[in-house]
Each structure stands twice: as C-alpha cells, then as structure tokens.
Specification:
It is built from 10 helices and 6 strands, in the order H-E-H-E-H-E-H-E-H-E-E-H-H-H-H-H. With about 270 residues, it is α/β, with parallel strands linked by helices. It has a 6-stranded mixed beta sheet, sandwiched between helices. The structure holds guanosine-5',3'-tetraphosphate.
Length: about 270
C-alpha cells in the first residue's frame, strides 16, 4: 500500500481531476480515505462517481449527489458502467469541471481511483471502449499508474488498486459484506443478514412485505430473520430455525435484486 500511495502521489502532480469510483449502494463503505488525503494534499478537484446506480435506490442516489455537490471542489455523477450514455455523460461532466484543459496542448488528465469491486475496471473499459483493465485482484504493490489516451484532448490514468481502508467500522464492513464486496469467509452470514434486515426494517419495510408477506413493523432484525426462516422452511430439526440458511436466503434475495433497488447507506 505504501508503494501504491507513493506512485499515486507522484502521478497526481500531473493530474487535473481525480475520478473516485464509489458503489452507489454504499458510498462511505466503498470510499478509501487515502483518495481524499492524496487529492487534498495536491489540491485537486474530485469527481465522485456513484457507480452501479442501476442497483441503488434512485431517490437516495439523488440525496447523495446533492450532499456531495454542496461541498467545495467536489463534483458528483451517477453512472451505470454498463450504459454507454452514462459513461459519455461522465466524460462530459469531467470536461465541464476543468474547462481550461481542453485541447491537444493542454489535455484533460484524469486519474481513476477506487477500491476493489466498485466497478473501476468495468468503467475504465467502458470509457476507453476496449478492454484494458482486468477485474482488479492484483495487489496494489505490484502495479504502477497506467496511462491511456482517450483522444488527443483527454488522458486517463488508472491508479493502482486501492484496498479498503481498515474495516474498523462495523457499518462499513457489513455494508461491504452485504454487497458481496468481501469474501464469504471473511464474515458470519447471520451477523451480516441481521445488519441487512435492520436496514430493511428501517427504510424498506414494504419490500419485506412484498417479498415475504409479513409486516415487520413490530419486529426487530433477529425476529425478521427467524420469520423468513420459518416461511421458507429453513429448519434444523423439529421447529428450530436454521438461522444460517435464513441469513443466506435474505442475502441471496437481496443480491439477486429480488428486493428491488436498495441503498444500504444514506447521507446524514
Ligand atoms: P473492480 O475493477 O472495481 O474490482 O470491479 P469490476 O469492474 O471487476 O466490477 C465488479 C463487478 O461489478 C462485476 O460483476 C461488474 O460486472 C459489476 N459492475 C460494474 N459496474 C457495474 C454497474 O454499473 N452496474 C452493475 N449492475 N454492475 C456493475 P461480476 O459479477 O463480478 O462480473 P461479471 O460477471 O458481471 O463480469
């Protein structure tokens, strides 16, 4: 990581705009504070890209955009990397923010940054219209900054993959686990499902009703998991509910989009 930090810091000297890719379903959990630290050191503006917006709750995405745009030197767009028009819009937005870098003599230089699984490779490939970036499982230490010329007015730098910041906040760690960003062996499904059930209970109670057919207004998150297990016949022996199976039912339903478009983290 120290090596990655060094090479990013060096490359930022000749970068006009940092493009920080976030997962629209969990912007705080998918941010690495190093991005903010490095770009502030160099006083570079940032374009926050709320990627995977096709999976996120559109109303909450709007709130995130508003809260980001209210800050200095900070711009934000929502994107589905699989939609060409969104990707074109991102480039337009980037150009708008740095109008003085718009020709072959002074091309716009952007650096794309993001933690694993936010969709950085998918986005880069979509921007460049060809497959240059692999799904980022390579350790950051082995990679340096790569340069791609989009056209004569636009240079894109791909930063080495950043890792998640220390998973010291339960909220962030669970959000990453819910969204399948960290390996299944790194968490306990029941705990993560309880976290998800709590978010659903608070913000999306109607989705629980629509999917499982019960009213969750007087239930806590553990009860919700029990109830899902009961309805889906997840029992160990006799009447005891198999909570691990219940957890996996809820997590799988969520990840397959069966509960609709949901954002796990909302702005304050
Ligand atoms: P990374 O470089 O940041 O690690 O992420 P990567 O591009 O590998 O994307 C991680 C997963 O997220 C991939 O799914 C990719 O298809 C998906 N993804 C990226 N952007 C978007 C988006 O805007 N919307 C949606 N719905 N998905 C997106 P995967 O299942 O791991 O691989 P694949 O089978 O789709 O290729």
């Amino acid at each position: 990581m120290a090596q990655a930090k060094k090479s990013i810091a060096k490359a930022l000297k000749s970068v006009d705009l940092v493009v920080e890719v976030l997962d629209a379903r969990m912007p705080p959990a998918s941010a690495n504070p190093l991005v903010e630290e490095l770009r502030l050191t160099r006083q570079r503006p940032v374009l926050k890209v709320l990627n995977k917006s096709d999976l996120a709750d559109p109303a909450v995405t709007k709130s995130w955009l508003q809260s980001f745009r209210a800050q200095d030197n900070l711009f934000a767009v929502e994107v589905c990397s699989k939609h060409k028009s969104d990707v074109r819009n991102l480039i337009r937005e980037a150009r708008k923010q740095v109008p003085h870098r718009s020709d072959a003599i002074k091309p716009l230089r952007m650096m794309v940054m993001g933690v694993p699984n936010v969709g950085k490779s998918t986005l880069l490939n979509a921007i460049l219209g060809r497959s240059v970036a692999k799904a980022a499982d390579e350790p950051a230490v082995t990679r340096s900054v790569s340069r791609y010329d989009l056209d004569e007015k636009t240079i894109i730098y791909d930063s080495p993959g950043l890792m998640w910041s220390k998973l010291d906040s339960r909220e962030n760690a669970y959000a990453l686990a819910v969204n399948n960003a960290i390996g299944v062996n790194a968490y306990v499904p029941e705990e993560v499902a309880v976290f998800l059930a709590e978010k659903l209970r608070l913000f999306y109670a109607n989705r629980i009703f629509d999917r499982y057919g019960f009213d969750s207004s007087n239930l806590d998150a553990n009860d919700i998991l029990q109830k899902i297990g009961n309805i889906r016949g997840a029992r160990i022996k006799g009447d005891e509910i198999d909570l691990e199976r219940s957890a996996n039912i809820l997590l799988t339903d969520y990840r397959k989009g069966k509960l609709g478009r949901i954002t796990i983290q909302v702005p304050n």
